[in-house]
């Protein structure tokens, strides 16, 4: 199956489910945002505020290309660059954790760690609508996450990848 990439909007559970999926599949797990924070010794918020979104996107594209194995929790904006989409399609299996806007709003509420969530409701929704089309259009599998626990989702992905029901 090569590398397993989890994609989806902020709050869809990529980081949480990725960790569990790594355990289930007994593969190493990399959370791209945590990796960038460890490498730069800066928080994602600080990178955005001090260096700008474009610098963050450069780090993100660089990190994506360094990962050769395992389960990868991407950041919600990985689809903003076509080169990232093409890289993931070529290297592995892409799984979209599909989550409704209202469920994401419940999960993130007034989260302040995600710079792009700290926007007005209409801007959040606009970003959500723009991104959802992208996620859906290039995922190999779509997994709905509303009303499911993270362990249940990891097990569902395990079944999909291993082709049993
Ligand atoms: N299936 C789920 N059901 C309920 N809460 C969830 C689910 N998946 C994630 N969460 C919660 O939503 C928040 C964001 O999850 P996270 O894994 O950081 O998402 P992402 O990495 O996609 O932004 C966390 O508080 C997490 O515990
Ligand atoms: O959607 C985005 O553009 C972003 C999502 C975040 O990751 P999560 O999707 O894990 O929250 C993080 O990479 C950064 O704040 C930008
Ligand atoms: Mg995350």
UniProtKB/TrEMBL annotation:
Keyword Phosphoprotein (UniProt): no
Gene3D superfamilies: P-loop containing nucleotide triphosphate hydrolases
Positions with a binding annotation for substrate: 33, 57, 76, 131
Cofactor(s) listed in the protein's UniProt record: Mg(2+)
Catalytic activity: shikimate + ATP = 3-phosphoshikimate + ADP + H(+)
Co-factor binding comment: Binds 1 Mg(2+) ion per subunit.
Localization: Cytoplasm
A GO cellular component annotation in the UniProt record: cytosol
Main localization, broad class: cytoplasm
Keyword set includes Repeat: no
GO MF annotation list: ATP binding; magnesium ion binding; shikimate kinase activity
Pathways involved: Metabolic intermediate biosynthesis; chorismate biosynthesis; chorismate from D-erythrose 4-phosphate and phosphoenolpyruvate: step 5/7
UniProt keyword list: Amino-acid biosynthesis, Aromatic amino acid biosynthesis, ATP-binding, Cytoplasm, Kinase, Magnesium, Metal-binding, Nucleotide-binding, Transferase
Binding locations of ATP: 11-16, 114
Biological processes annotated in GO: amino acid biosynthetic process; aromatic amino acid family biosynthetic process; chorismate biosynthetic process
Function of the protein: Catalyzes the specific phosphorylation of the 3-hydroxyl group of shikimic acid using ATP as a cosubstrate.
Family membership noted in the UniProt record: Belongs to the shikimate kinase family.
Subunit comment: Monomer.
Protein name, per record: Shikimate kinase
Gene that produces this protein: aroK
């Amino acid at each position: 199956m090569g590398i397993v990439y989890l994609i989806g909007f902020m709050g869809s559970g990529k980081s949480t489910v990725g960790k569990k999926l790594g355990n289930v599949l007994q593969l190493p797990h990399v959370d791209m945002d945590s990796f960038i924070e460890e490498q730069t010794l800066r928080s994602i918020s600080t990178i955005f505020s001090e260096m700008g979104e474009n610098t963050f996107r450069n780090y993100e594209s660089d990190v994506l290309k360094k990962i050769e194995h395992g389960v990868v929790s991407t950041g919600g904006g990985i689809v903003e660059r076509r080169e990232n989409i093409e890289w993931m399609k070529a290297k592995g299996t892409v799984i979209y954790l599909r989550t409704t806007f209202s469920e994401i709003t419940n999960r993130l509420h007034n989260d302040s760690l995600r710079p792009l969530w700290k926007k007005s409701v209409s801007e959040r929704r606009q970003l959500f609508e723009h991104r959802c089309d992208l996620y859906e259009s290039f995922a190999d599998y779509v997994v709905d996450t509303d009303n499911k626990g993270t362990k249940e989702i990891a097990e569902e992905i395990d079944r999909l990848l291993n082709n049993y029901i």
